[in-house]
Every structure is written in C-alpha cells, then in structure tokens.
Amino acid sequence: MGFTLLFLLVSVLVVTGLYSTSINNKRLESTYIQQSIKLKLLVSMRSIGRERVNLLFSSATYTDPFEQDDALIKFSELATQFILTRDKFRSLGLNQEESTNLRRTELIINSTSAKQAQVIELIRNGNPDEARHLLVKSVIPAQIKLLDSYNQLIELQSSIADNAIAKAHDATRTAYGFVLFVMMILFCLGLLIAVFVTRRISSIETALFTEKELAEVTLHSIADGVITTDQLGMVTYINPVAETMTGWNNMEALNQSLSLVYPIMNVSTGQYISYIDLITTLDAPLVGAEDRVLIRKDGHEFAIKDSLAPIRNQHDISIGAILIFNDISEARKLSQQLSWQANHDPLTGLINRRGFENKLAHAIKDQKILKREQALLFLDLDKFKLINDTSGHLAGDEFLRQFSRMTETQIRTSDALARLGGDEFAILLDGCGIERAMTIAEHIRQNIASYKFEWEEKLFEIGVSIGLVMLNEHIVDATEALAAADAACYQAKHEGRNQIQIFQGAASLNNQRNEATWVQKITQALEHNRFLLYYQRIVPTNTHSNSPAHSEILLRMLDDDNQVISPAAFIPAAERYGLMPSIDRWVILHMLTWIKTHPAPEHTNYAINLSGQALGDNRFLEFVVQALTKAQLPAGTISFEITETAAISNLSQAIRFINTIKQMGCLFSLDDFGSGMSSYTYLKNLNVDFLKIDGAFVKNMTNDAIDRAMVESINRIGHVMNIKTVAEFVENGETLQALTELNVDYAQGYAIHKPEPLPE
C-alpha cells in the first residue's frame, strides 16, 4: 500500500513534473522561437548593411555609367528592405536593453549614411578615386563599427535565450527537485551543451562576418587589381584581376611577401620599388607615381597606376594594408602617341615647330654653358607653290616628303631637321662651325637644285633659299634665333632665291622690323582711305591708229605728313604679310566708283593691276564678280593686269579667273612678259588680250641687239596668237621709234606720259 501510494505519489509528482516541464518547455520554445526570429532579423540587417557597402564600393570602381546606376539603384532598394526588417524586429517587442542597443546602432547607421551619401555624390560627380578613398578611410571603418554593434545585439539575444532557459531550469528544479537524479543530470548536460553550442556558434559567426566584411566589402569583385597584406607585408588576399596581372593565384600568393608577388619598377631609373617598409608606418592613403611598370611572373610588363592605404580595425588600429592598381598601358601608349603628335609633323614625320623650338632652346642654353658651336639653318622652298597650283596638293605633299628624306641624308644623326610649316624647314647643326655649316647648307641647296621632281609626266625644278645664323652669346632665345635665321633667308629670297645668306646682325632684323612698320601703315591707309589712284596713258605706236585710249591705274600712299609714298616702299611688305588682296579690293572698289562719276569716251580702257596673292584667294574672284555686276560698266572699260610670274605660279587659278572675268566683258594683260622661265609654254594656256613686254628688254633695246631681238620675238609671237603687245619703260623717242619699226602695238613710259593723280 505504501509502495503503491509512493508509486502513486511518485507518479503524480512525475506527471506534475512532466506537465510543469511541458509548460516550461512550451514557454521556453516560445521564447526561443521569438529570439531566433530576432536573431535572423538582426543577421539580415547586418547582411543588408554589408551588401550596401559592397554595392557602393563596386559603383566606385565601375567605369560604365550604366553599371554605376544599377549598383546605386540596388543600394537604394536594400535601404527599403532594411527599414522593413528593422520595423519587423521592433514589432516583436523589445526590452529596455534591446531598445538601447538598437538606438545606438541607429545612431551609427545615421553617421554611416551621411558618409555613404558623400561617396554617392563623389561617384555621380565623376570622382571615383576620391569615392574609393572615402570608402576605405571612413565608410568601411564605420561599417566595421556597425557590425560590432550588430554583434552585440546578437549576443544580447543569446543572453536573453540563456536567461529564459535558466529560469525554466530553476522552475523545474524547484518543482521536481526530488525527480530522478538521472533526469537532472540529463537536463544539466543538455543545458551545458546548449550553452556551449550557442557560444561557439556566436564566436564562429563573429569571426566569419568580420573576415567576410574585410574580403567582400573592400576587396572582392572590383575592376582593379587588389592585394591585401598584414602588418608585415605578407599577402593575405589577391583578387582575380590581380591574379591575372601578377601571374600569382590566391593560393600561391597567400603569406608571400608583397615585393615578391607585386614587383614594380621605376621606368626612368630602372630601380625596383618596395612598399614593405611603408606598410608599418602608413597612416593615410598613398598614390604612386605613373612612371612605374608591374613585372608579371612570366616577365610581361604592365604600365600601372596604384595606391596603397591602411586597413584599420574597429579600434582604429592598423592591421595591414590594401593595394589597388590598374593597367594603364593603353592610356600611357595613347599619351605617348599624343605627345609624339604634338611635337611632330604628320606629313613628313619630322619634328614640328613646337618640338624644334624646344630643341633650339636647349641648344642655346648648352651653348652658353659649354661654349659649344651650334648653327641654325632656315630653309624656304622656291617655286614650291607651282607644284600645288599645277598638280594639286597631293603632288605638293609628296614633294615635301621626298625633300624631307633627301635632306635627312645630308645631315648627321646629331642634327635636327624640322618642318616649321608650309614649305619652311629648319635644321639645327650640333657642334658645327660656320664653315662646316656653309658646306652642309650648300650640299643641301645643290641637291635640291639638281633634283627633278616628277608627277604625272610633269617635271618640276624646285630651289631652296637658306638663311644661316650661328648661335652665340648675342642670341638670347629660340624666338630670336629663328627670327635671325628667317631674316637671313628672307635676304636670300630678296637677292634672287636659290642661295645661302648668313645673318648679318641687326641690319637683317631691321629690314623685317621696317616691314612690320609698313604693315601698320598699310592697315591704317586701308582703314582711313589714305591711298591715291594715279594713271599713266598707254598710246598706240602708230599715230594714225584708231585704237582707243588706254591708261594703267597706279597706286600711291599718303604718309602722316601727306607726302606721297611710292609703291616700291610698301608693296614688298604687303606681299610678304599677305595684304595684297586687301589692297587690290580697295583699288577695284574705288576705281569702279570713280569711273561711274567720271564718264569717259567710248572704248576708253583702264588697266588695274592684280597681285599673285589675289589670284590665289578663292574668295577674291567672287568679290570681283559681285563688284563688276554692281557697277554695270560697258564691255572693255576695265582690263586687269597680272604679271607673268603670278600667272605661272597660280596657273590653274589664273586660267579660271581670266575665263570667268572675260565673260563679264573685261580684258586681260599679261605684265612683265619674258621675265619668267618657259614663258611661251604657258602663254598658249592663258586667254589674254595684251602682252606687256618686260621693260628690262625695252629700255636698252636700242643699245643691245639681244634685248631688241627679245622684244621682236615677243611681239611676233603675240601677233601670231592675235594678242596686242605693249612695250613698257619707253623713256625716250629713240626707243619709241624702234618699237614703231617693230610694229609693237602700244607704248608706255615716261617719254609718253608721267603718272599723275586721277582727276577729282
């Protein structure tokens, strides 16, 4: 009975204990489920935070704007997901300690969000380097601090769970203290296992998240090469891009010295550079110079740009370094190519004016220090324009290339040949005295003079005028040296072309400076109408002829004192500085206006001179057509005079100009005929009405049989071609009589009429 009662009592106690245990278990289960849900939500919030930093870091490394936008959109979407998760966590009910920790976490989040916003702003403003710098310096350390806060919340949930289990255990022990000892032992053992597992999982999870944060947030999946090291400079991680560029995979590189895995060399000095010593003292990001190459394991070299920054833990203690680098081989190659193009002429491959001026400046500096002899040649091709005008620019370009190659063979490797522009070249002769420089210049001149350039069955003979200047203590800089050489070259042109002139000091430069002064005077004369129109009559040699009256229109200038200036004083400067088309326009407009206000007898003709520069100006023809159309003068009132040299130098433009203007009722004269080469060859291509025989033959024809024969020959050819002839420089009656005997049609000169101003 007692045994039965005891058994019943034990049974009741056991049942009661079991029931109490069941109630406690359910309570414990509810608490566990709630804490598990909270734990999962905290883990999710921590993962979202880590993923957002991952996306932000990726966006900072992307070069494709669409990839950047995609990353930033996902970054924003995760923010929404984070808010929903946080609100769900709050809805589960928080105790005071949980609420306090959550508020502290949110404060860190707000601080981190501000820095993340700065990073986004930098990315959107196109400053990815500064964005990455801010990430590594501020955002990532803040994120690590945030992870620590999440870990504290996770540990708090574990602590709450532990407390619930302990309370359940105490209740069970109080109610069933006398329950079987074995059950107590089993319960205690289960409790110990639960505590051990919980703490072990928490410890492993913390370590895994910390390591993953460092690897994934700062290193993984970025477009640049990334290597991380510990404080001793031993590699702890290498990403796929870095594996490709270094030739080391992650497993091979692990725990290897950074200098071994990432050997870089200074291109300029050839010395290897090591970052090992910097890692232990590095306290801020360091950007490397761009003159470095990375030598891959197989020996292949990459031009690289890199940066090194410290990695800090949540206590702001440096635990290693992160090295970010990228391949800039193509960029450096492009930069070198652009640099070459900036200093070289694309047509000939020679250095251009900019590159030559740099070399010349260094040579002048060396001369002043070392007293080393240096010479400068300035080359200007003679009659080069003839190639362009008769055969086109392709032919001209080919001649320039051939000229460059020929000239390079005449100089030494230590010398420098440059194309300054157009048909102007320069040569810097290193360590060369004046006699040697003259010899080299003469060889070049002779070589070009004897060279026959052939293009489409046409042969051209091109000369070269050369100016020579020695670089000495009187030459201050490259600009002055080129000006001196140019002045000497100009003198060579002025003296008859195809020759060499040595710079004669200030006299040569004064000529150029005087011309520059004339340019100002010409410009002012054009603006203030200080030019004057003169005329000189052209009369038939046959006094019984009914030929109409002719007059050549001549130009004069008024100076500041209203003194008349001869064109011989200002025309050379106008030709050299390209002002002749403007002067020609002034003459045409004012002459057409004068004719409209001064009616002349029928068939009166006025001859207006045109420059070679005007013939070469495509807009000038359009101007003349418009001016003549507006004037509406009778046919034959205007004739235009162009020199033989100008016509031949601009042959295609001259033919087009003549044919167009003749259709408008104008006549044409070919001036100074006989002064150029191959005059008769080109004459048959020019539809002119008058040949003006060069005055050099006319003025001495009564004393020189050859000059008389030349005049006679030109007159006969003109008449065969139905072209009237005009003799210039008729200065006496004897010459006029000789021209009459030769049946030259017209005469012009001081013996007939001295130039005088057009009537007001």
TrEMBL record:
Pfam families from the UniProt entry: 4HB_MCP_1, EAL, GGDEF, PAS
Gene Ontology MF annotations: catalytic activity
Transmembrane segments: 175-197
The protein, known as: Uncharacterized protein
Keywords carried by this UniProt record: Membrane, Transmembrane, Transmembrane helix
Sequence ranges assigned to domain EAL in this UniProt record: 515-760
Annotated ranges, domain PAC: 288-340
PROSITE patterns from the UniProt entry: EAL, GGDEF, PAC, PAS
NCBIfam families hit by this protein: GGDEF, sensory_box
Start and end residues of each GGDEF domain: 372-505
Family annotation (InterPro entries): Biofilm_reg_signaling (IPR052155), EAL_dom (IPR001633), EAL_sf (IPR035919), GGDEF_dom (IPR000160), HlyB_4HB_MCP (IPR024478), Nucleotide_cyclase (IPR029787), PAS (IPR000014), PAS-assoc_C (IPR000700)
Residues in PAS domain copies: 211-263
Top-level taxon of the source organism: Bacteria
GO biological process, one term: regulation of DNA-templated transcription
